[in-house]
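Quick one: structure for this chain?
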Amino acid sequence: MSRLAGGTGDIWDQHPTVSGSTKAWLIVSSMSSMTGGWATMATNVADFTRHMKRPKGVYWQTLFVPGICTLLGVLGIISTSAEKVVYGEYIWDPLELASHWDGPSGRAAAFFVGVSWCVAQIGTNLSANVISCANDMASLWPKYINIKCGVVITTVTAGWITVPWKIISSAASLLNFMGALGVFLAPIAAILACDYWVVKRRAIDVPALYRKNGRYSYGTRAGTNWRAVVAMLVGSVPSLPGLAAAVNPSLDIGGAKNIFDITFLVYGALSWVWPAHETLVEATLHEEVIIVDGMEVTNDGLHGTHTGAKSVQAETIKAAEA
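Got it. Here's what it folds into:
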């Protein structure tokens, strides 16, 4: 596009058409839409990282993801600016842009762009949506749903019932959808981060996570942590007026449209005032049998019970220290 336009267009010569608080909130809104697109990976990335050989392997994302996304964004801006010179309008949709390409070479280019776009969407949905949702359904109803069945259900639901062709019908509807993802998924990500890093201090009883009546059942039949429920409601409900105003600009909600997520602080405060003591452990537990004061202790996921047998490993260590 830059070759056809003889340059990068006028994008670099444009000046802001808004200023003050309007400009500031527009920047915040754009950032929210961008982060909303990553909200699914923020909440479900453990479905993939748990298979890594080393925990530090995820650090490579901090180098590649921002760089690649910035590069693609810049290329998209340059291409859109050049389109204005060639076609007389800004075209943000790659598929609509490809429809303007005529002739044998243009149709060939449109074909490869379409195939690339299709492969990209399949890869994105598999990693960000389908696998995670299928895992959740298989965990909730393992008797009736396995991973394959969950994938089919997710594909039908996300691919047809949510009418995605309407979501991408315009830039405004796409941004509103991305922002809506953040309204509901950002509080979940904040609760998960606060629970692991602040409340639990990275000490987790791993076997107890898979026990119905373990320490993480929170004393309820449904295994629900009421602190997380409250934090979720406090973090998401105040954002709903802003979402409604984005969908229907005619609604006048005043400053309510600028409410930010406060889920992290709310969950942390509730867990500090009313801590769930039964879920707290001094260090992360990975094994069913652990060593406490030289004794083998069966980790029942709640309090732990002594087996009454001394650990040979513990006795060996003590002998070596002596």
